[in-house]
Structures are given as C-alpha cells and as structure tokens.
Amino acid sequence: MKKFNLIATAAAGIEGLVGNELRHLGYDDVKVENSRVRYQGTVEDIIKTNLWLRTADRVKIIVAEFTAMTFDELFEQTKALPWDEYLALDAAFPVAGKSQKSVLHSVPDVQAIVKKAIVNKMSEVYHRRTRLAETGAKFPLEVAINKNHVLLTLDTTGSSLFKRGYRIEKGPAPLKENMAAALVLLAHWYPEKPFVDPVCGSGTIPIEAAMIGHKIAPGFNRSFVCESWEWVSSEVSKKVRAEAEAQADYDIELDISGYDINERMVEIAKLNAQEAGLLHSIKFKQMALKDFKTTKENGTIVANPPYGERLSDQDEVRKLYSQMGDTYRPLKTWSKYILTSDLQFEIFYRQRASKRRKLYNGSLRTDLFQYWGQRQRNKH
C-alpha cells in the first residue's frame, strides 16, 4: 500500500504528547516539531490515527514541500504535482492559507494562485475546457508558507479531532476535548487509582479520563472527511473501526468522580457522559470544592478552575484557589494538576508546585501547576 508523509497538528505545548501517542500506536519514525508531529503511513494508518489520537487536532497528508520566492515559482511548482492522484474530477477543494516571515505574504493571493495552479493541472489531465464542477467529495487543502518554505497539505480529518461527538451541551469557557485528554495524560493517572475533577463543568475531563481508562478510541463516535474519498476504501475503514472496538474494555472498574457547585452543570455533564456511553463509569455530584473529603490514597485531581480573566472575578477566583490549597494540601498521597492563566496561583494556593508546564488553552497562555503526591507503598 502507498505510504504518505503525514502530520498530526496540535496545540502549542502538547506536541510531545501527540508524539508519545504515535509511538504507543506503533509508529517509530516520529518527529516532533512546533505545533505538529511528522510520521508516515498508509490509508489504513490515516484512519487509525484519526480514530486514536486523543491530543491532536488533525491528521494531514503532506502533498509537497518546496521553496517559493515568487508567485510564478509557487504556481509552477504547485501545478507540477500529481493532483489527479488525490482529487476526483468533481472534487470540491477549498484552499486555506497562511504565511509567516515570507516574501509571499499576501494570504489571499497565495490561496488564489495555488487554487488556479490545481485547476489548471486538473483541467489538463481531464481534458476540461469548462470550469470544474466541485460538486463532489470535499478535499480541504492548505498552503502554509513559513520563511519562504511552502507546505501543501490535504486534511483527512474534517471537523477538528476535539469534536468527539458526545458534547450535547457545554458550559461557559469549555475546555476542548483534546486538551482535557492532554491534562489526563500529563497527570500520569492509572485507571486503578481514584480520579477527581472538583470543578467538572460540562464533564469533559472525567469523560476523557473514562475513555482512556476503558481504552476507547476517542474518534469512535464520528466520521472523518477522508472516509468520503473514493480512494479510501470503506472496507479498510470498517476493519480499522472494528479493531478499535475490539480493544475497548468496558469491564474495567473505574473510580472517577466529577463535582461542580452548579447543579445545572452537573446535569449537563451527566447528559454528555450518557451520550459517550460512559455515565456508568463516572460519579457526578453537585458539591462545593471546599467540601471535598476522602480517605482514599494515591488519587489524582485534575482541575480546570475559572481563571478570573475579568478583574471583577479575580478576587472570587483567588478565594477559590486558597480553598483548593486548604482542601488538597492535607491529601499527601494525592497528585494535583491545576490549569490556570493566573500565574500567581501558587501564592493563593499557598504551596510551590512540584513543576509548572506552559500550555495554550486556545490562544490563552495557561500554566499547569503540578503537585506530586507522596506514593504510599502497599503494606503487606
């Protein structure tokens, strides 16, 4: 089977996680770069990685890479590519674009020239004098130019991978599903240990934890744009999906809890968990953060509390951070992972973090404050 050069795109700060996921899936030639990871694979691998990558945004085929300093060079090198191997005669192929630190800096012009070059090539190959219909399957293309280096890619995913399909409703400032999965993976939580999200909102973090715990492919509930292409066989798609289904283990007993002070959010979280088929694995309950008590050991807390972006909210939020400190500091064997854009978090929590990690929640710079638990050894 033909092998493609592929990239999985990701939010800044979590590319390393995507690289790890690909290695765990069995890909060895993995190269982590800014906001993306390169690897190689067949059509089967394209579907498999779309289905299994928890922290990536998209899986793209690299059609070509070259240097272009003039519009002529961009046109000729784009036109020279075997577009008919990718696009059907009636393919709809929108071209998105971006350009940084390059001579060809006008994005609309760059997009128009790439589009024109592809139309010319397709018209020649298919002996067309009239306009191409573009009424068929969608092939989303992107031209990205960075320091005069052109990267032409074909998106195999469609709507971003964070759209798992289980979120019927969301609350204010929701966390994307792939970011929630990244927080769970960064917490190094083991499915046999207790897991708590004390400010669970619409339930995304506990749901992602349950999917990880049950070994459920995050893309099982949705389709990908490449599944509508004629050269992507539905048999291959069915086979990869059946293999993913066979790996899911619904019998693993999980101890996952999600709490929120807002009763309405708890109801939304339950609806979303039910849509994901995971309501039986998560205990949702209305509870204020400061009322959390437990006698369990070696648990993991992952929280994405309100950040207090508006000054009017800041005092309230910082009061919440100090309640977090009072509630969690006594839990010596528990690890706590708290994401916030308030870089003074430690002052209000009243404890230095074991480690901080910079992550971007959308375009917002946030830090993951990590407090590592002291492990209790089992007493024999």
Give the structure's gist in a few sentences.
This protein has 380 residues and is of the alpha/beta class.
Layout of strands and helices, then pairs:
Layout: E1 4-9, H1 15-24, E2 31-33, E3 36-41, H2 43-52, E4 58-67, H3 71-79, E5 95-100, H4 107-125, E6 141-146, E7 149-155, H5 177-186, E8 195-197, H6 204-213, H7 234-247, E9 256-260, H8 263-275, E10 282-286, E11 300-303, H9 311-328, E12 335-340, H10 345-349, E13 355-361, E14 364-371
Parallel strand pairs: 5-6, 8-9, 8-11, 9-10, 11-12
Antiparallel strand pairs: 1-3, 1-4, 2-3, 4-7, 6-7, 12-14, 13-14
Helix pairs in contact: 2-7, 3-4, 5-6
Give the ordered list of helices and strands. EHEEHEHEHEEHEHHEHEEHEHEE
How many DSSP helices?
Answer: 10
Output the CATH homologous superfamily of the largest domain: Vaccinia Virus protein VP39
User: Order of strands in the sheet with the most strands?
Assistant: 2-3-1-4-7-6-5
Protein traits:
alpha/beta, seven-stranded mixed beta sheet, methyltransferase, 14 strands, 380 residues, elongated, 10 helices, VC0802-like, single chain, Rossmann fold, 2 domains, RNA binding, THUMP domain-containing protein
Question: Can you tell me about this structure?
Answer:
The strands form two sheets. Strands 2-3-1-4-7-6-5 form a seven-stranded mixed β-sheet. The protein has a seven-stranded mixed β-sheet with strand order 10-9-8-11-12-14-13, covered by helices on one side. It has helices spanning about 15-25, 45-50, 70-80, 105-125, 175-185, 205-215, 235-245, 265-275, 310-330, 345-350; strands at about 5-10, 30-35, 35-40, 60-65, 95-100, 140-145, 150-155, 195, 255-260, 280-285, 300-305, 335-340, 355-360, 365-370. The protein folds into two domains: about 5-155, VC0802-like (2-Layer Sandwich), CATH 3.30.2130; about 175-215 and about 250-370, Vaccinia Virus protein VP39 (Rossmann fold), CATH 3.40.50.150. Strand 5, helix 4 (about 105-125) and strand 6 (about 140-145) form a beta-alpha-beta unit. Helices cover about 30% and strands about 20% of the residues. It is elongated and about 75 Å long. By secondary structure, the chain is an alpha/beta fold. The model has no long low-confidence stretch (mean pLDDT about 95). The chain contains ten helices and 14 strands. Helix 3 packs parallel to helix 4 (about 105-125) and helix 5 (about 175-185) packs across helix 6 (about 205-215). Keywords: Methyltransferase, RNA-binding, Transferase.
